[in-house]
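Need residues for this backbone.
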């Protein structure tokens, strides 16, 4: 298992201090994206806490986003959250459930780099079809 980076450790510490989770996973998913090796820009966070008991999911997410506001203003580009109350978490474990598919993050399709390459290719194709035929004798 790879060592956690400084940002992942910081996220873990802040969430541990703030919501006292009974379960916490901070997963660096930056490797799935078009970023330099070793980056800490894309994270999935799974957090189970009694502090979420009376909160709607949107309010749980707002809470986590507020706790991690400095990281989100800094280098963290994406944060995928799964916030659960203990009873749901224990129920999931008893049923042998894994992370719900809707919470699994898809692989990166290239983001801006792919869009820019496609646009460049389209521009090249358009410009080559617009060049007039030149006849030489």
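Answer:
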């Amino acid at each position: 298992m790879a060592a956690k980076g400084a940002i992942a450790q910081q996220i873990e510490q802040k969430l541990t201090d703030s919501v006292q989770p009974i379960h916490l996973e901070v997963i660096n998913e930056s490797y799935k994206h078009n970023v330099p090796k070793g980056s800490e820009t894309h994270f999935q966070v799974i957090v189970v806490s009694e502090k979420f008991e009376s909160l709607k999911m949107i309010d749980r997410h707002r809470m986590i986003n507020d706790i991690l506001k400095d990281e989100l203003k800094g280098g963290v580009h994406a944060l995928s959250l799964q916030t659960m109350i203990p009873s749901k978490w224990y129920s999931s474990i008893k049923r042998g459930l894994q992370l719900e598919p809707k919470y699994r993050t898809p692989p990166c399709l290239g983001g801006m780099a792919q869009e820019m390459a496609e646009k460049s290719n389209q521009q090249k194709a358009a410009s080559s079809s617009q060049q007039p035929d030149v006849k030489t004798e």
